[in-house]
Amino acid sequence: MSQTPVPYKNQLVNIIKSALQNRMAEANAAIISAKDSRDSDTKSSAGDKYETGREMMQMEMNKAELQMQAAKKLLHELDKIDLKSSGNKVKPGSLVTTNREIFFMTIGFGKIEFEGKEVFVISPASPLGTILLNKATGTSFSFQGIERLIVSVL
Q1: pLDDT tens-digit readout, 8-42
Q2: For 87, what's the count of Cα atoms within 13 Å in the CB-facing half-sphere?
Q3: Are 23 and 120 in contact (CB under 8 A)?
Q4: Would you call 83 exposed, middle or buried from its count of C-beta atoms within 10 A (0-12, 13-18, 19+)?
Q5: How far apart are alpha carbons 111 and 96 in whole angstroms?
Q6: Of 9, 10, 11, 19, residue with least CA distance to 94
Q7: 14, 23, 46, 113 - which has most CB atoms within 10 Å?
Q8: How far apart are CA 59 and CA 131, in angstroms?
Q9: Could you tell me the pTM of the whole model?
């Protein structure tokens, strides 16, 4: 990590926000596509086929709307995280480097690539997040049978 912690964290947050905004745009496109498909479907003599097609499009719209809501919720949660937190104990907003991985304690998002490294974006409420909370630099912990050492907390 070649930068000070807050700009580094801000860059990570920007990557996550961009990915969430892409998810929202994709969900919106899926909603529009399904709505157009549903509305342009004309009633045929095979009424059951027409109703089934409309129901399938409605299900696709509902699924995309749920994806949109989930992405919006994650964006909202991400905005509430204090990135200026520092110290040697893990808390929400911490960037935790272990001898094996790097974890960013913000939201449950998954793995991202940054400066040639994998960073796992995890929620403090996740199983691993709850283990990490309040652990200090130099502390060892085990997760899924693998022993890890916390090298730094930013």
Answers
A1: 899 999 999 999 999 999 999 998 988 887 777 65
A2: 11
A3: no
A4: buried
A5: 14
A6: 9
A7: 23
A8: 38
A9: 0.82
